[in-house]
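ARCHIVE CARD
Drawer: 12
Card no.: 0347
Subject: one protein chain, sequence and derived structure
Cross-reference: see card 0346
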Amino acid sequence: MLSDFKAKLMEVVRAVAPLSAAAVLLQFTIVQAPSELFIRFIIGVLLSIAGMLLLFTGIDMGILPMGRYIGAELPRKKSLLLILAVAFAMGFVTTVAEPDVLVLSKEVEAVSGGGFGGQALVYVIAAGVGLFVVLAVTRILWQISMCLILTVAYTISIGLSILFPKLVPLAFDAGSVTTGVMTAPVIIALALGLTAVLGRRSSVSEGFGLLGLASIGPILVVLIVFGLFRL
């Protein structure tokens, strides 16, 4: 346990070090920010290391194993409706708790002057992820071609982008922020658990791709919902 914790600490430090080093170099050569601000930056780096360490340790200890267990248990219940309902719920609730999604929603609400409700945007993004997690799980169960689904999904998203060009930046940012530290581990673990039980193909060919497919959902849902009701 202690060795794993130390290894995770080194991973976090290596991840944060390049950004910290760049900021320190700029501070002493070009930027020269006020001392108070620079000290706050150093404190912020230390707090970020502590927070990331606890977060990643928690993900490895509990979230990933539980996600795999849920994914492995669902097929044994022999209920397609239950599998799809749990898939939607897992995609929805993890996205609602995703820090990147919350940051995006707050910034959008602030910049738009309340034109886009932050909480509404969170739920729209979460619904998009949930729906496409369901689609991705269906693909695993019925062995539907990933290429076919991606082709259709991106064709529709391009068509909607042409119809609602003002929403394109927001929609694609909404898709990108769903691949964060909360959503990604849960969805990947769920998929790997499913494929481990079904065992029709390798986990590489069936268990992955679900996260990429799920990130298309917010793009389409944001374009449809805000395009139809706001433009």
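Annotation on reverse: The two ends are 54 Å apart (CA to CA). The CA atoms of residues 149 and 213 lie 8 Å apart.
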